[in-house]
Amino acid sequence: MISTKTIVCGLDDIPWDWAFVHYLKIGEGLTGQDLKMQSVFNPAEKNPSFFLYFDHNAKRYKFKDFSADKQGDAVTLVKEMYGLTTRGEAAFKIIEDYNKYLIENPNGHKPSEFKEHRKFKVTDFMSRLWTTDDQKYWNKYYIGSKLLEKYNVKPLQEYKMSKEEEGVVKELNIKGPRIYGYFRTDGVLYKIYQPMVKDCKFINVVDYIQGTDQLSMQVPYLVITSSMKDLLSFMSFGYKNAESVAPNSENTLISEHIMQSYKLKYKKIITLFDNDQAGIRSMEKYKEKYGLGNVLLTLEKDLSDSVEKWGKVKVREILTPILKTVLNE
Prior knowledge:
Elements: H1 18-23, E1 35-37, E2 50-55, E3 60-65, E4 70-72, H2 74-81, H3 87-104, E5 121-127, H4 132-139, H5 145-150, E6 153-165, E7 168-175, E8 180-183, E9 189-193, E10 202-204, E11 221-225, H6 228-236, E12 242-245, H7 256-265, E13 268-272, H8 277-290, E14 293-294, H9 303-310, H10 312-327
Parallel strand pairs: 11-12, 11-13, 13-14
Antiparallel strand pairs: 1-2, 2-3, 3-4, 5-6, 6-7, 6-8, 8-9, 9-10
Helix pairs in contact: 2-3, 9-10
């Protein structure tokens, strides 16, 4: 029988990392590092999209599940995992489960020693000349050299990532084919795109709404796409009355003050995201928060993939009437 002296009555009496370790069945200790794993809410996903990270401001671990569009602390995790109504119910479950844990583990749970885990950051890069292999890749999406030049997409020979831990600087030099840098017009590198790297296609260097520098704000319509590649595919259609931007990802909601500035310049703004669950949820968020209409293209997962498979002419024939309908609503 468990002694009443060891019974906990509040969340503050439970080790800070126990809930995540217990409910996510994490085999390693949480010491401040970031973890990426299969979604507990969407086990059928092909690419893991569940991230566990240490929030240095809140001094606690939090999670973000991009595939299920859920995020929060351990209490939120338990609430969502078990379909509970309130955070109070979730907190009670955590306390109850920890007390059950103490019956089998009288010494309790000893959290791992916290360490400061610095992340690798891009600190240098080297550009290179375009090759026929680059041309072959971008031509699949009918994206030509003029568009790539206009939007400051450049091939990279390599890039360097660095971090400092315990006074020691660690560096990684990454080389390979089909590595591209996305640059602002002032020459600042804001993103690296590696289509050949499955688990790390994008590396964000600085926050930036893609396509911002190229906006004329002299046309009536603005289309928000989910990526630079989709933005370029859209602009390749040559619509004279529309231009496009793309946030860091379709899960990134453009801030209210920027959206208000867009609304002062454009007659109408719409979204054109991926047709998977994450993309549809993101379009719904933009509609709910900003009242934006959305275009759902169902040919392939996204616009650029549709162009690759069906061709530019076919996709434009299908997309144009959908755009007209949404823009005239």
